[in-house]
Amino acid sequence: MDQLREFAERYTAAWCSGDPASVAAHYAPDGLEDVVVNDNDAEYHWTLVGTNTGPGGTGNRVRIGGFEEWTIGDDGLIAASLGHYDQAEYDRQLAEGV
To answer: Taking the chain, what is the end-to-end CA distance rounded to the nearest angstrom?
Structure first.
């Protein structure tokens, strides 16, 4: 569990340093909300907080939560990842703000 949480923290930091042409964002707090482990699966819960400043950006603030479903392979690495968040709410916030 500790190794998976450490990985999630590094994953968050890498994701946070992504393409500045998209939503310029930081994560609150630290983006990582929780890591829940079940047998060979885990859920990485996150919160994205930022401002849409990319090309054609609206300048609106965004705060959205979601989670990734991680399937852990026999080697202990993430074999598959499936992300979940409320796309309609995200789109609304891009257009109208938080």
So the answer is: 34
